[in-house]
Design a protein that fits this description.
Elements: E1 4-7, E2 14-15, H1 17-30, H2 38-44, H3 49-60, H4 67-80, E3 87-88, H5 92-101, E4 106-109, H6 114-123, E5 132-134, H7 147-156, E6 161-165, H8 168-177, E7 181-184, E8 200-202, H9 208-221
Parallel strand pairs: 1-4, 1-6, 4-5, 6-7, 7-8
Antiparallel strand pairs: 2-3
Helix pairs in contact: 1-4, 3-4
Amino acid sequence: MKPAIVFDLDGTLIDSVPDLAAAVNLTLTARDLPELDLPTITGFVGNGLPKLVERVMTHSGIDMGHHGELTRITLDNYMRAPTARTVLYVGVRDMLEAFTTSGHALGICTNKPEAAARQVLDALDLSRFFAVVVGGDTLAQRKPDPAPLLHVFKQLDAGPRFYVGDSEVDAETARRAAVPFALFTEGYRKSPVSALPHHLAYANSGNLPDLMEDALSGISAR
C-alpha cells in the first residue's frame, strides 16, 4: 500500500505571509497603530491565527483583553482576500500531481482555521488533491498536539504514513505522533535545519517524490 502523506499548508505548500500581514496591518491601522513589516509578522507565524494575533498584540502593546475581538477582526480581514498575494512554492503542483498519480492518499493538517484553509485550497485549485482537510479549529486540539495529524491519517484510512511541514511546530507534531517527517527548508522555521528532527529535508517540492521514495525504502529496510 502506498503511504498516506499529510501536508502542512502555510510555509509548506504556500507562501501566505503577505496576505496574513495585510490582514494584521488592517487590524492595527484601524486602531491607529503602526503597521508591522513582513519579517516581523513572519516571525509570529506558526501556531495558528489566535497565537499570531496574540504575538502581534504583545509586540504592539495592546491589552490582551481584546484578543478575542481582534482575532475575529483579523480573520475577517484575511477572509476577504486570502489569496491576493499568496503563491505556491516552486514545484508544489507537479509534486502533488506526481503523488496523486502514483496512488498516495493525501491530506492537510494545518493550524489555519479550516474554512480559511479550504477557501485558499479552492482558490489555488489544490482542493482536488486532498481527501481530508483538518484546520486549527477542526478539533479541540491543534498542532503540536498530535491529535489533528492522527485524525487526518485515520480519515485517510491508509497504512504507512509521512508528514510534510516547514516548522518547529510541524517537527514536534510528527515526533509526538511517531510519524516520519519531511522538512521543507524554505518555509517559516526559525531554527537551523539541523535542530529539527526529520527523516529528510528538501528545498524544491518537485524533488520530494523521489526523495520520499528513497526515504521510505530506507525506513522499510530497517
